[in-house]
């Protein structure tokens, strides 16, 4: 399996989904996953085999085992030597280090396309070394690696579409990214899409055979005892309505601010929280000021781990007004914390959620009505809080793992 993110290094929903999918698969007897990622930190869970791509040689270097032990943090010296035996071309023109390995920045650096290409080069060594039944690549960043590994090994390729560039760009598609996505899809034996919404995008915009495209919805894990123990801190005289996510045009933050402005014409005892970071953050701060509601708005910045759940638990309503959301795990996490959710009808998670409110992202009047109703009608709020929690308890990664495994078996004709 090729992936770009994995906890505890979380840059977005891709890390959470990668963890959930692999952990769900780990519950199935006989399934063993080797997860190849650019630059692991060494604190990843041990239920799967992690391969650090930045510790796989692509240029032959004569290094002894003691030195390797001092330099390698994830891969073993034995792995290093096996990988070294399978270097397949002269990559000495690349900027390799003293071990003959390519470094990665981790995350999404300015030279991202170069790192994606390097990742694909290393995948060729992995595919020549590592035995497997099937290859699984997550999102466009690892599609070239998956395609390369398929060509080398002859094994079937499953690609997982967590988002397309149509979602990220509101239709202003980057042709390079589109080309990478389409090439991955063209070579895939099975395309797993995080929703039917995404599946239709893949079929209609990338011209893929519907027979090889399947909707594979995401899920959530039960809350840990540590998260369950978080005590909410709420002011009984005020309600809190929260947006939590990347503050980018895909997530529709301006619609949240405009709807908040309509709510605050009716009452002033509601506070609004916009948690996250992104290229539209300053614009949203300025928009709140322009609407005269800055005194009721909070911008706490990027949150991770426990902070996210503290935010959910301190909120009375969660809103995800995404313009195009392939899935969207955040509302499920909020509902786990007893916080009712309002989501856009353009969100994939709405396909498996009933106990939440759905509005069009652009319909700020309907969004404002939903916010106001949940903040002022206790019976309505409590109903959605209790039923929403009951609903998400049935949406588990174990079930997703079983569905993925069954899909593997179909691809392999087992």
Describe the protein's architecture and organization.
With 414 residues, the protein is α/β, with parallel strands linked by helices. The protein has 2 domains: 13-219 and 398-412, 3-Layer(aba) Sandwich (Rossmann fold); 225-392, 3-Layer(aba) Sandwich (Rossmann fold), CATH 3.40.50.2000. Helices cover 42% and strands 13% of the residues. The chain has a 6-stranded parallel β-sheet, sandwiched between helices. Strand 5, helix 8 and strand 6 (213-215) form a beta-alpha-beta unit. The longest helix has 18 residues, at 112-129.
What are the salient characteristics of this protein?
Rossmann fold, 6-stranded parallel sheet, alpha/beta, 414 residues, 13% strand
Low-confidence stretches: none
Output mean pLDDT: 95
CATH homology group of the largest domain: Glycogen Phosphorylase B
What is Rg? 23 Å
Strand content: 5-15%
Structural class: alpha/beta
| Major β-sheet strand ordering | 9-8-7-10-11-12
Q: What is the second-level CATH architecture of the largest domain?
A: 3-Layer(aba) Sandwich
Domain count: the total is 2
Highest-level CATH class of the largest domain: Alpha Beta
The topology string of helices and strands comes to: HEEHHHEHEHHEHEHEHEHEHEHEEHHH
Share in helix: 40-55%
């Amino acid at each position: 399996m090729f992936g770009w993110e994995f906890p505890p290094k979380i840059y977005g929903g891709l890390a959470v989904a990668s963890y959930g999918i692999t952990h769900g698969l780990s519950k199935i007897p006989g399934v063993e996953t080797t997860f190849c990622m650019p630059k692991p930190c060494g604190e990843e869970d041990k239920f799967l085999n992690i391969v650090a791509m930045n510790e796989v040689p692509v240029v032959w270097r004569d290094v002894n085992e003691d030195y390797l032990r001092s330099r390698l943090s994830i891969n073993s010296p034995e792995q290093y030597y096996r990988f070294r035996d399978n270097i397949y071309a002269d990559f000495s023109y690349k900027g390799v280090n003293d071990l003959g390995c390519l470094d990665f920045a981790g995350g999404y650096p300015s030279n991202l396309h170069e790192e994606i290409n390097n990742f694909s080069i290393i995948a060729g060594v992995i595919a020549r070394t590592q035995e497997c039944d099937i290859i699984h690549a997550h999102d466009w960043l690892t599609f070239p690696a998956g395609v390369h590994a398929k060509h080398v090994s002859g094994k079937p390729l499953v690609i997982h579409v967590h988002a397309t560039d149509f979602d990220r760009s509101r239709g202003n598609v980057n042709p390079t990214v589109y080309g990478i996505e389409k090439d991955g899809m063209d070579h895939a034996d099975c395309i797993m899409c995080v929703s039917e919404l995404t599946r239709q995008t893949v079929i209609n915009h990338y011209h893929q055979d519907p027979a090889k495209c399947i909707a594979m919805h995401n899920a959530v894990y039960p809350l840990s005892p540590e998260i369950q123990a978080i005590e909410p801190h709420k002011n009984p005289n005020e309600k809190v309505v929260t947006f939590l996510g990347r503050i980018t045009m895909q997530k529709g933050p301006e619609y949240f601010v405009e709807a908040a402005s309509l709510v605050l014409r009716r009452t002033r005892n509601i506070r609004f929280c916009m948690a996250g970071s992104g290229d539209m953050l300053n614009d949203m701060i300025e928009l709140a000021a322009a609407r005269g509601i800055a005194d009721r708005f909070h911008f706490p910045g990027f949150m991770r781990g426990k902070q996210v759940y503290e935010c959910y638990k301190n909120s009375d309503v969660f809103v995800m007004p995404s313009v195009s959301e392939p899935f969207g795990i955040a509302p499920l996490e909020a509902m786990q914390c007893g916080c009712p959710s309002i989501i856009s009808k353009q969100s994939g998670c709405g396909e498996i959620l009933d106990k939440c409110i759905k509005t069009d992202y652009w319909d700020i009047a309907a969004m404002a009505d939903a916010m106001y109703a949940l903040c002022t009608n206790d019976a309505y709020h409590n109903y959605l809080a209790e039923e929403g929690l009951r609903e998400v308890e049935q949406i588990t990664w174990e079930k997703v793992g079983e569905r993925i495994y069954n899909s593997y078996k179909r691809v392999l004709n087992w």
